[in-house]
Amino acid sequence: MTTVTLSGLTKSYAQTLAIDAVDLEIREGELLVIVGPSGCGKSTALRLIAGLEKPDRGQIHFGERCVDTVPARHRDVAMVFQDYALYPHMSVRDNLGFGLRMRGERREQVRRRVAEVAEALGLDSLLDRKPAELSGGEQQRVAVGRAIVRQPAVFLLDEPLSNLDAQLREGLRVELVRLHRRLQTTMIHVTHDQTEAMMMGQRVAVMRGGRIEQVGPPLELFQRPANRFVAGFLGTPPMNFLSAQIDGEACQSDGFRWPLRTPGTSDGPVEVGVRPSAFRLVASPKESAASESAASETLRLDVEVVQPLGARVLLQCRGPGGQPLGVECPAAGAPAAGDTLTAEVDPRQVHVFDPATGRRLETVRDGDEI
Ligand code: ADP
After folding, report:
1. Which of 227, 257, 295, 368 has the least CB density, counted as fewest CB within 10 Å?
2. What is the pLDDT of residues 20-53, one digit of tens each?
3. Atom of ligand 1 nearest to the CA of 19
4. 214 CA to centre of ligand 1 in angstroms
């Protein structure tokens, strides 16, 4: 268990700047998820931490110790990859114990550790099987077990679930979180799947183009995305973006009008983000006027497509200016394709971004103290 600190970490491959001056602290005992689109540098970051690659610039510290010159095998790090290569001729028991035996641990110690790990991962009944006799999910659990059996100071997971089918993936996400709670080891999990990142991470670091866009607890990133990229990347169904105008007292966009201002920036064009879940369907404009959150004006939307999500549905609509808008509402009593509905959006759930830089702009509502 240790803190991992990256400072000014930079790595290029030929023409590609894979990691661009990254500063990041992974706290002692934390489960941090690095998420971002394919090619953004996630695996490179992990490989640098593991010592499998050398940085061009910058440092990595484990606790107080700079590990820049420490070879991978002495870093006390265990890594699990997407393609877990188990030894096919060995039983699960021998696969789990192999690293410990190579390290010269006593037989009794190996037996005890293998039993502990098998119990933690629910592999007890599979110990005598060979990898070919296991399902994909079971094989991946053995790969995880083989990594944790050594009790590393830092545990690195590089897309370990992406080869599994959706149902197994869900189950293993929960298992990994449970395992982390039990082990309390510093864990860094890499994925391109934002749902997985939100579900697993105590904190999530969103990467793009070799840089970290934002780090924080998942709900903080969801509720207060630092920029348009993070806002659009996290959340399912995705956020709607609209061009809008701030005119001193309100933010307006084709039929929308919210009593919002952006102090500290001059009036002008902005980009507005509204999550599908931020819409509230109202029976009639009259009901809206009576409701507490009726700080925005209601608008009429034409429903084009209805997509069931389960207990909720996603309505693909056209807004007053013909703009496409995703709107989420409870499945019970949901409108049908071809219906017109009246909806409103609470101004507190409206995100405003600088259209040039994509940065989040802080907003205040009428009546709020600045
Ligand atoms: P991710 O894990 O987010 O998909 P990677 O860290 O694997 O991204 O890659 C980051 C960038 O560096 C990509 O543009 C990739 O093509 C490039 N890259 C990674 N490894 C190598 C390599 N060994 N040689 C050349 N380019 C590489």
Report:
1. 368
2. 999 999 999 999 999 999 999 999 999 999 999 9
3. 10
4. 20
